[in-house]
Amino acid sequence: MLENAVRLRRTPLSILDLVPVLEGGTASDGLRRSLDLVQHAQRWGYRRYWVAEHHGMPGIASSATAVVIGHLAAGTSTIRVGSGGIMLPNHAPMVIAEQFGTLESLFPGRIDLGLGRAPGTDRATMRALRRGPLLAGDEFPDLLSELQGYFRPDGADADEERVRAYPAAGLSVPIWLLGSSDFSARLAGEQGLPFAFASHFSPQYTLPALAIYRETFVPSEALEKPYAMLGVNVVIADTDEEAQRLATSLLQQFLGIVRGRPMRLQPPVAVKDMEMRMTPQESALWRQRQGTTFVGTKESVAEALEQFVAATGPDELIVNSAIYDHSARLHSYEQLAALGNMQAAR
Questions:
Q1: For 19, which of 61, 71, 171, 175 could close a Cys bridge (C-beta 3.0–4.6 Å)?
Q2: Closest listed residue to residue 186, CA positions, set 166, 204, 203, 208
Q3: Which domains does the chain have, with CATH numbers?
Q4: Is the CB of residue 299 less than 8 Å from the CB of residue 210?
Q5: The pLDDT of residue 341
Q6: Chain segment 306-343, per-residue pLDDT in tens
């Protein structure tokens, strides 16, 4: 156990924020709460703070991801801020290069560009976003190569006309690949890029994806050795019972997605009430996610997280905490920071 605890203290912690819109609240409220959270996270010693691109989701206010990143970076001074991630097939690579080149110019050395290949939405919304033929998943490597080209010192892609994306040309914005399967794991390894795996909703593929990433890794200008970050859900409260109650908001969010009826983040309810609402199939899916969902007191979460870190060996953890009450959410992240001993380290 002591060795595991040392592993946890040595594992940097970061935050994944979906900028939740609460039932009865507005997107403006959610954005203000996220600014408050990132400012606390900076003081507590979190390494980075990422927001994710989702569309057509009434409970998520981070659809204009680059705009939200600018809002959060402007309200902080040292913490890295970035995308977890931008869904690259939804956009022209040049537009992403221009956006993140601008962000890097405004906030030098603090911007991360995490990329995913999923649409982050339904097919109808995907068509509305792309305004053209839908791209196949195997085109993602070509889109990535084009995007990388815009950041080269000459700012040119492979086109003979040497299209340039300013102010991206010559800037160093770390590019991460995100994934929940083996595709991005393999591509990140072959490209020598850092890799973030969505363990918080794909726990069963965590170890296979990590193995593929590490086995296929080729050193690059970006990295000399593999660097893997894993996503987890964490809810910490002063008692196990209170933590379980707070986590029913996450469970309601999960059920809304599974049932094809995404909703705003709901207030917590009694655990027994949630158990009665679920079908056997939904209960099985929820149990599957418990391997990367850590709910309880600081002590009980510490023990479970230590075992997870020992089993997977991540270089970093990125934590999602879908908690309805903002003060309870802050408390959970503060307690987690204490587990990582980050405040003492600073």
A1: 61
A2: 208
A3: 2-233+312-322 (3.20.20.30)
A4: no
A5: 62
A6: 999 999 999 999 999 999 999 999 999 999 999 876 43
